[in-house]
Amino acid sequence: MTASLDEYRARLLTRPQSKFTHLTDEEFRAGLALVEAAVRDGAPTEPRPVVERHDVAVFVRV
To answer: What is the pLDDT of residues 34-47, one digit of tens each?
Structure first.
């Protein structure tokens, strides 16, 4: 979770998240451009949290 869309964008710039490894560089840049446009054009004036949803599987040996 981040405090704002701009903070989320800044975190994405380093691309540390493995969920993006299947994307080509062009796909990643295109997605990042969409986030940057949202920050520039439509982001609320007051920061609000950005929450990411992650599907998680838990395996237990019985």
So the answer is: 888 877 876 666 66
Check: CB of residue 8 under 8 Å from CB of residue 43: no
d(CA 44, CA 4): 9
Residue 16, pLDDT above cutoff 80: no
- Compute φ and ψ for 18, nearest 5 degrees: -65, -20
- Cα–Cα distance between 20 and 30 in angstroms, integer? 12
> 3 and 47 in contact (C-beta within 8 Å)?
yes
Phi-psi sector, 15: left (phi>0), alpha (psi -120 to 50), beta: left
Residues forming a β-bridge with 50: 2
Tokens for 40? 């520039």
